[in-house]
């Protein structure tokens, strides 16, 4: 009689498909890591090409904010630290995503879920970055030993978004993970959208080119906002949104004196 009893149905996998330890879901988790790294690498390849166009052609000459000429070899001077940071960031991202795979869900999100998750990640990231960035300026030791490296770029070009002391980007990496911990479950398409937007926005605000797209999006900080911070580095600490500088009275005016 026992031979004819139905076998128990295997438990369905958790919705966070990257949290399972089965071989199948292990492959899914590695696919997620590889796909995320590919997105990040492609964004930085685009930023490198964008930098070459800005530095070595006249395509954007009439749209530049500052008029100082770039040094001919500035990209190659900056490249060793930029490449070191990108390699270290890639390795840390791979480890972090693999270890935190249980927080991610791969399914088609509703519009409401997509907007709410993306909005929360961007807000948490930028609110954290505002205070972190402000601390790097107001603490004389951190400014002199760490953040001053990034501010060698008084007239920035796109790739200089990652021209920073390694400890600086490591500390700045915390913001989105605060949001992920709050949400507990994040859709991978939301996370990928966040990565693409954040990378391209960082390239844009370090381009020294007057914004075309981001000036038309409400609350999104355009290039002019961050470019002013590089030329007069004692305000405009926000990155994605300019609202924090308005609320906390650190917004700079275009006629602010240089220091």
Note down, in words, how this protein is organized.
This protein has 259 residues and is mainly α. It has one domain. Strands 1-2 form a two-stranded parallel sheet. Helix 1 runs parallel beside helix 7. The longest helix is centred in the N-terminal third of the chain and has 34 residues. The relative contact order is 0.14.
Label this structure with key terms.
single chain, mainly alpha, 9 helices, globular
Principal-axis shape: globular
Gap between N and C termini, in Å?
Answer: 89 Å
The succession of helices and strands, N to C, reads HHEHHHHEHHH
- Indicate the structural class: mainly alpha
- How large is the count of helical segments? 9
What spatial order of strands do you see in the largest sheet? 1-2
Number of strands: 2
| Largest sheet geometry | 2 strands, parallel
Strand fraction equals under 5%
Q: How confident is the prediction overall: mean pLDDT? A: 81
Q: Roughly how much helix do the residues carry, as a percent range?
A: 40-55%
Per-chain topology:
Blueprint: H1 23-56, H2 74-99, E1 104-105, H3 111-138, H4 140-145, H5 166-172, H6 175-183, E2 186-187, H7 188-205, H8 223-231, H9 243-247
Parallel strand pairs: 1-2
Helix pairs in contact: 1-2, 1-7, 3-6, 3-7
Summarize this structure briefly:
The protein contains nine helices and two strands, in the order ααβααααβααα. By secondary structure, it is an all-alpha fold. It has one domain.
């Amino acid at each position: 009689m026992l031979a004819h009893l139905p076998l128990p149905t295997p438990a369905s996998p958790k919705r966070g498909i990257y949290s399972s330890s089965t071989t199948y879901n292990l492959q899914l988790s590695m696919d997620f890591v590889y796909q995320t790294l590919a997105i990040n690498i492609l964004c930085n390849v685009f930023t490198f090409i964008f930098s070459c166009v800005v530095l070595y052609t006249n395509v954007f000459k009439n749209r530049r904010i500052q008029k100082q000429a770039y040094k001919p070899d500035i990209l190659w001077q900056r490249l060793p630290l930029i490449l070191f940071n990108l390699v270290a960031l890639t390795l840390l991202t791979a480890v972090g995503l693999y270890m935190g795979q249980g927080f991610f869900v791969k399914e088609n999100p509703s519009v409401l879920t997509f907007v709410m998750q993306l909005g929360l990640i961007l807000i948490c990231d930028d609110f954290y970055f505002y205070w972190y960035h402000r601390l790097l300026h107001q603490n004389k030791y951190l400014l002199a030993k760490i953040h001053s490296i990034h501010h060698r770029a008084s007239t920035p070009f796109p790739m200089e978004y990652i021209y920073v002391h390694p400890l600086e980007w490591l500390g700045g990496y915390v913001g989105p993970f605060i949001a992920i911990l709050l949400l507990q479950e994040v859709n991978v398409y939301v996370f990928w959208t966040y990565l693409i937007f954040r990378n391209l926005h960082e390239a844009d605000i370090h381009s020294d080119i007057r914004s075309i797209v981001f000036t038309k999006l409400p609350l999104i900080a355009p290039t002019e906002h961050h470019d002013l911070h590089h030329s007069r580095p004692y305000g405009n600490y926000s990155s994605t949104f300019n609202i924090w500088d308005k609320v906390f009275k650190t917004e700079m005016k275009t006629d602010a004196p240089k220091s």
